[in-house]
Design brief:
Largest sheet of chain B: 8 strands, mixed
Distance between the termini of chain A: 67 Å
Strand content of chain A: 15-25%
Low-confidence stretches of chain B: none
CATH topology of one domain in chain A: FAD/NAD(P)-binding domain
Helix content of chain A: 25-40%
Largest interface: A-B, 38 and 37 residues
Shape of chain A: globular
CATH class of one domain in chain A: Alpha Beta
Strand order of the largest sheet of chain A: 5-4-3-6-19-18-17
Low-confidence stretches of chain A: none
CATH class of chain B: Alpha Beta
Strand content of chain B: 15-25%
CATH architecture of one domain in chain A: 3-Layer(bba) Sandwich
Radius of gyration of chain A: 29 Å
Structural class of chain B: alpha/beta
Number of domains of chain B: 1
Number of strands of chain A: 22
Radius of gyration of chain B: 18 Å
Helix content of chain B: 25-40%
Mean pLDDT of chain A: 94
Strand order of the largest sheet of chain B: 3-1-4-5-7-6-8-9
CATH architecture of chain B: 3-Layer(aba) Sandwich
Order of helices and strands of chain B: HEHEEHEHHEHEHEHHEEHH
CATH superfamily of one domain in chain A: FAD/NAD(P)-binding domain
Oligomer: heterodimer
Chain lengths: ~575, ~290
């Protein structure tokens, strides 16, 4: 066979010359996937509504400045809250059921420290300018938060503080070993950058308040709980008996007395523990006497545990009954209590254990059994024309008269730093709605910027940022695809040794490295938000998820998507939804 | 998940694979790893259909459709032709289903690897003749329903261990892979490409239609096959050096079985028996890899 013949008789092989892309297989679809970001449980548990899954995602990427600014968007005080917040976020972390909660507060503190060390400046400035002027009475966490949000929303804000330095409980109550002064100073300094003017040593009294109402369009009162409640027992005015908050304030003011002998601290909250630990640092012995049991104490258990390690003694089920001054010492009589049934809040109900009594001889006694307003007019009215009661704040806006807003401890059910921040934020947003749209719009506008089911509010949602696209659905643990996560122990907070910490007021919790922070942030499931993991894109059998270059959004090409739903199931964090699934 | 592969897509949308098809996912990862200098031989299998009817093609590389039993032989010929043209860069791949590998194409495969032809033979395994209507193959696992093992006559024979059959040929490289473990799959595809001689990849590819599972569970179930030790991830070099790539948490096999309609009829007793078989196979593999349980 010659060459020509061979060619003529060559096997005919048909060759395809076009692609299958003319078949629009999207017509097969009866379920429809889409990208839909949702709400993380931590962010709705955070009274300040911080965007925690995004903060952790940015931290994982090493974008510390952006992560820090994401906190600032919702909470002006990350250096404070990273240290002293009771972090309800961690209590609702979806990772708890997997291994243990992400150390969210440690990340917050780390980002705040990084911002300080690297001199990060925030781009969160004034959004616009309005003519209204607002006075804030009290430079505690509520007042300063209100001032910060109001300034960003465009108002002229002046803060009036009776003490020589701003900060309230942060400056004068919480000991330096938990919140060093430098951490607070930088947070407050940022307010000046927003144009907030703080006038210290400027005590406001009822007539001063009236004057403020003449000069300003609104007054925010965040005066806090400045005074310990009296115990209501004989001998309370004896020499050697002191108000715990006043004592802490004296120490934070620079006093450093030697406290030889035994100090009894009456109470079970954080103030009681702070007083006792301060006593130890001043060379004394401290006994905390509490009416209920350890498990009923409102103090953070971790703080109490450290206090016990530092040598503080805890006496449970002791209710103070009387104080006598004898031979230069105090004889403190307690009634022994016992548990009988349960209180409405689930704690054991206490009743006197017969006539049993106990006497403790002490050199001094500090009262720290709950605090209240220092002056009656700090308390919001219960009924008044134009009164609007919100979850964390109260507005009094009678027509044609100056507006007054109340926030902080006096309007909060839970007296914590972050709830004070939340109340300042809520009042600021409510005042903005009031001035711009009128009182009738307040509830609806605030509800529209709630994080998940609320009551936490988001400034980002309020100002129309991308977070508003997320749904209210709070991601459940079973909606996380845990096949994409490995067990990883939670970071252990490095601390001063007990010997070091009981001798000084140095900060106990030490800094962590960037490497550790990135690893801990990497434990976060990033519930409900897309972190660009690309599972949807990679697993799509129909090549119908398009992905742009770095940072660009992913898109579903519905011309070809057959609706198999793989992308939704393989999304580790429930940032996608399958519609039409029965 | 970060996959260090080409952004380039060598597979097109618009193919007629069933929703959630594991075989298409396997192809996509494999081609992203191998790149466009690849010639693919497709003996009869699901992919003969997915690759598109004339004049369409789903793949942006040369594809040769061949007869069911000729995967190994056709690839040998393509390799010889490329060698004659001096083309050493192009990788020749046979992409066959379990029917074309375990049963009908076995002699051509055995012959080609015995000659140590320089090509990669990929078996994407969906455990039955799926595109012809779910008939059982020698890859169908013990306990499965198919249209030829219906009702109470479900398959009571074990799945053929195809990797061991290939390992017995002492080929340079044989490995298992799974669509739910893309990093591992991509690494093995690249490794196979870098080795001269016959390479065999056994890729587990779930089939929503034949396994009676919801399409969105296709990856999840493929992953569970590894997590339960039903389909361990391992590789064997030169027929002797075993490496186990993934040590699972060892979920119970019943977790895998209860999600699939094809196993719905199995009783607790059956599942216990299957668990025994899986444990036995795993112990055997550990011994071959020189590891102790």
């Amino acid at each position: 066979m010659n060459r020509e013949q061979g060619r003529a008789e060559a096997l005919f092989m048909p060759r395809s010359f076009t692609t299958t892309e003319s078949n629009l297989t999207g017509s097969w679809r009866y379920m429809r996937p889409r990208f839909e970001e949702k709400t993380a449980p931590c962010s709705t548990a955070c009274p300040a509504g911080e965007d925690i899954p995004r903060i952790e995602m940015l931290t994982t990427q090493g974008a510390f400045r952006e992560a820090w600014e994401t906190i600032l968007m919702e909470n002006p005080f990350p250096a404070v809250c990273g240290r002293v917040c009771f972090h309800p976020c961690e209590g609702s972390c979806n990772r708890r059921g997997f291994d243990s909660a992400v150390a969210i507060h440690t990340m917050e503190r780390f980002l705040a420290d990084s911002a300080l060390r690297n001199g990060f400046r925030s781009d969160l400035g004034k959004l616009q300018s309005w003519k209204e002027r607002i006075a804030v009475v009290g430079a505690g966490p509520a007042g300063l938060a209100a001032a910060s949000f109001l300034a960003r929303l465009g108002y002229v804000v002046h803060v009036f503080e009776s003490l020589p330095e701003p900060g309230g409980i942060l400056r004068w109550g919480i000991p330096a070993y938990r919140l060093p002064p430098s951490a607070l100073q930088h947070e407050i300094a940022r307010l000046a950058g927003l144009g907030v003017e703080i006038r210290t040593d400027c005590r406001i009294d009822p007539s001063g308040l009236e004057a403020l109402e003449r000069d300003y369009d609104a007054v925010f009162l965040g005066c806090g709980f400045g005074k310990d409640r009296p115990l209501g027992i004989p001998g309370e005015r004896e020499e050697g008996v002191e108000d715990g908050l006043a004592f802490l304030s004296r120490i934070r003011g620079g006093a450093s007395p030697r406290l030889e002998g035994v100090s009894v601290v009456v109470g079970g909250g954080n103030s009681a523990v702070d007083v006792a630990r301060t006593v130890v640092r001043l060379g004394g012995r401290a006994v905390i006497a509490y009416r209920r049991r350890r498990q009923d104490m409102p103090a953070f258990d971790e703080e109490l545990q450290m206090a016990l390690e530092e040598g503080i003694e805890l006496q449970e089920l002791l209710a103070p009954a009387g104080i006598e001054r004898r031979d230069g010492k105090l004889a403190v009589t307690f009634r022994r209590m016992k548990i009988s049934g349960e209180d409405a809040d689930g704690r054991g109900r206490i009743v006197p254990d017969g006539e049993a009594k106990l006497e403790i001889e002490a050199d001094r006694l500090f009262t720290a059994a709950g605090a209240g307003v220092a002056e009656d007019w700090h308390r919001p009215p219960q009924e008044e024309t134009g009164l609007i009661k919100l979850s964390h704040s109260i507005l009094v806006a009678p027509e044609g008269r100056p507006v007054r807003a109340y926030g902080g401890d006096a309007t909060n059910d839970v007296q914590m730093v972050v709830t004070a921040v939340a109340s300042g934020k809520q009042a600021a947003l409510a005042l903005d709605v009031l001035f711009r749209e009128g009182p009738a719009a307040i509830r609806e506008r605030l509800a529209a910027c709630a994080v998940g089911p609320g009551p936490s509010l988001s400034m980002e949602i309020y100002t129309g940022g991308p977070r508003k696209l997320r749904t209210r659905h709070v991601v459940l643990p079973e909606e996380i695809n845990t096949d994409y996560f490995a067990f990883e122990p939670r970071i252990t907070q490095p601390r001063l040794l007990v010997e070091e910490r009981s001798r000084s007021f140095s900060e106990i919790d030490l800094k962590i490295s960037a490497g550790l922070a990135i690893r801990e942030a990497g434990r976060c499931f990033n519930c409900g938000i897309c972190n660009g993991c690309d599972n949807c894109y990679l697993f799509c059998p129909d090549v119908s998820i398009a992905r742009g270059h770095e940072g660009e959004d992913r898109r579903i090409n519905y011309d070809y998507c057959k609706g198999c739903g793989l992308c939704v199931v393989e999304c580790p964090r429930n940032a996608m939804t399958l519609e039409g699934k029965s | 998940m970060h996959l260090d592969v080409l952004d380039q897509e060598l597979m097109c949308s618009g193919h007629v694979g069933c929703p959630g098809c594991g075989a298409t996912i396997a192809m996509r990862f494999f081609l992203k790893a191998l790149g466009e200098k690849t010639v693919m031989v497709l003996p009869a299998c699901c992919w003969s259909v997915i690759a598109g009817p004339y004049p369409q093609s789903t793949l942006k590389i040369p594809v040769i459709h061949s007869a069911f039993e000729t995967g190994g032989a056709t690839a040998s010929g393509v390799r010889a032709a490329l060698d004659m043209r001096g083309d050493k860069d192009t990788t020749v791949v046979t992409w066959a289903g379990d029917g074309g590998t375990f049963d009908i194409g076995f002699q051509a495969l055995s012959g080609a690897v015995e000659r140590n032809e320089d090509f990669i033979y990929v078996c994407y395994d969906n455990e039955a003749y799926m595109n012809t209507g779910i008939q059982r193959s020698s890859s169908t696992p013990y306990g499965a329903w198919t249209t030829t093992t219906p009702g109470t006559d479900w398959k009571r024979l074990r799945k053929k261990n195809i990797v061991e059959a290939l390992v017995a040929h002492r080929i340079p490289y044989a490995a298992t892979a799974n669509i739910a473990f893309p990093e591992d799959l991509v690494r093995k595809a690249r490794k196979a490409k870098s080795i001269k001689g016959s390479k065999f990849l056994h890729i587990f590819a779930s089939c929503p239609t034949g396994w009676r599972i919801p399409s969105e569970m296709s990856i999840k179930i493929a992953r569970m096959a590894v997590q339960t030790n039903i389909f361990p991830l391992y590789e064997v070099e030169d027929g002797v050096r075993y490496t186990i790539n993934y040590k699972p948490r060892e979920y119970l096999v019943r977790e895998y079985f209860k999600l699939q309609g094809r196993f719905r009829h199995l009783t607790d007793q059956d599942l216990d028996a299957i668990q025994e078989m899986v444990n036995e196979d795993w112990q055997l593999l550990l011994r071959k890899a020189g590891e102790h349980a």
